[in-house]
Specification:
Helix content: 40-55%
Shape: flat
CATH architecture of the largest domain: Orthogonal Bundle
Largest sheet: 7 strands, mixed
Distance between the termini: 52 Å
Number of helices: 24
Number of domains: 3
Strand content: 5-15%
Strand order of the largest sheet: 3-4-5-2-1-8-9
Radius of gyration: 31 Å
CATH class of the largest domain: Mainly Alpha
């Protein structure tokens, strides 16, 4: 378990100054699991003012005594390393923040106040691990267990309820029975936590490869009702003859597909929420039930969710559009290019590919065997076609007006023929598409007859045909 040189340098400086020091927490867990740590934390018996004397280039802006040390590393994960003095926390009357913090004298005191056994590990520069709570055994058995009594740990910071699910999801561990029972019995404590902190943990669950199991675990532990209760409305809500799953199963299966495909956070959220409006719009029962307008209702519900959890503006707008327009109609031969243009106006060209990915997830979540049938490939082809400028004289760095001005002539059919001739040449050699070159060529083309100039039209038609063939080949249509 090799430590990065930047970490070694920090530890050596602390040692030379006469202090104890250890890397601690999740980075030790990750090293044991042969995962690359994203965050590096160091703990020491030095007090904040003593740490600042050793490391003059630092950031100190919190009440926990944590000092951010600037290392000037090229690796962004190592650019700032956090050092925190050994500490003990008092009661958490608000289940969010300790009422009082005091610095401890020993590493053992510090480790005893941490959340889970797998995060309560410390390691010195020689690779020796301090493990007071059998964290290494829990790593081997893939178990999430609190340090000490679960209720005590969760009452100190109710976000730990959600962090337990996040660690179980990301690490693909199971939650130990007593820890699981404490989460379920005290799930309502999550109401005391800020929406921003909840959002950040929820995003980590959704971005993980195991996102599907993570959402199921949120429901099993009773936490989901305090995060996105709207999703739960789909539990046991049957669908019509086009679906083999309930609304809840359908939405979570759609998420599963996007996680397997490693799609973006926006697509994953779009897939999870895409049919969230169905329970509120259901009419009738059995295989002929309907859900008219569920896309519009779902868009409104998604707006409420992203506002409540305070997602960023860009992500919110994108997810809302993916939900609102996921029901787009497309059948080859029925939908026109103009209708595709109208769809692109609504969702934005930059979201078109993601919208199709949500539709893929919708299909798989409905029990369909194929995510991308011919008609979706054909739609991609049409989107590509209407979003690119057609081959025309508009591509030239010179206009008909420029031709008339250069040759001092009046409007007439020959101007169009000359522009087509220039376009044919530029298609062969794009480097010729400069105003200077084209102005020279105008004088040479002016000497040719209309019949000679018309020959260039064949070359343009062939170029258009070749471009279309390449586009069709790209989308297998």
């Amino acid at each position: 378990m090799q430590l990065p040189q930047e970490i070694k340098n920090v530890l050596e400086k602390l040692q030379k100054a006469g202090y104890e020091d250890y890397v601690v927490g999740g980075c030790v867990r990750d090293l044991i699991m042969k995962r690359e740590p994203k965050d590096w934390d160091i703990t020491t018996n030095a007090k904040p003012e003593e740490i600042q004397k050793i490391f003059t280039d630092n950031v100190y802006e919190n009440e926990f005594g944590t000092i951010g040390i600037k290392t000037e590393s090229d690796n962004p994960d190592l650019a700032i390393v956090e050092i925190t003095p050994y500490r003990i926390e008092g009661e958490y009357t608000d289940k969010r923040h300790p009422d009082k913090i005091r610095f401890a004298k020993t590493l053992e005191e510090d480790l005893s106040r941490r959340d889970f056994t797998v995060n309560s590990l410390a390691m010195d520069t020689d690779g020796e691990i301090v493990d007071m709570f059998s964290g290494q055994n829990d790593i081997k058995s893939k178990t999430i267990r609190t340090v000490g009594k679960p209720e005590e740990r969760f009452s100190e910071d109710a976000l730990r309820l959600l962090r337990a699910v996040r660690f179980a999801t990301v690490l693909e561990f199971k939650i130990e029975d007593k820890t699981f029972a404490a989460i379920k019995n005290n799930a309502e404590w999550l109401k005391a936590i800020s929406k921003e902190r909840i959002r950040d943990e929820f995003i980590k669950i959704i971005e993980s490869d195991n996102a599907y199991d993570g959402v199921l675990l949120l429901e099993e532990t009773g936490l989901l009702q305090y995060i996105i209760p709207e999703l739960r409305e789909g539990i046991d809500v049957g669908q019509n003859l086009h679906h083999i799953y309930t609304v809840w199963e359908h939405n979570t299966q759609a998420l599963r597909y996007t996680a397997e495909k490693k799609y973006s956070l926006a697509v994953r959220l779009g897939a999870l929420f895409h049919d969230i409006g169905k329970p509120r719009t259901k009419r009738g029962d059995g295989k002929y039930s309907t859900f008219y307008g569920h896309d519009v209702v779902g868009g409104r519900m998604t707006t409420e969710i992203v506002e409540r959890l305070r997602f960023s503006k860009d992500l919110s707008e994108k997810v809302i559009k993916l939900v609102r327009y996921h029901l787009f109609y497309y059948n080859v031969g029925e939908v026109t290019e103009s209708s595709i243009r109208r769809l692109l106006v609504n969702i934005g060209l930059e979201n078109a590919e993601d919208l199709i990915k949500v539709r893929e997830a919708d299909r798989i979540g409905s029990g369909r065997p194929k995510a991308v049938p011919y008609k979706l490939r054909h739609m991609k082809y049409i989107i590509d076609k209407v979003s690119h400028d057609p081959i025309s004289a508009k591509m030239l760095k010179i206009s008909g007006e420029d031709v008339m001005k250069e040759l001092e002539i009046k409007p007439g059919p020959k101007i169009g023929l000359m522009l087509n001739s220039l376009l044919a040449e530029v298609l062969d050699d794009p480097t010729k598409n400069t105003k200077e070159h084209l102005q020279k060529r105008i004088h040479e083309l002016d000497k040719k007859s209309p019949e000679e100039l018309k020959k260039s039209l064949e070359k343009i038609e062939k170029a258009v045909e070749e471009e279309e063939k390449e586009r069709m080949k790209k989308y297998y249509v």
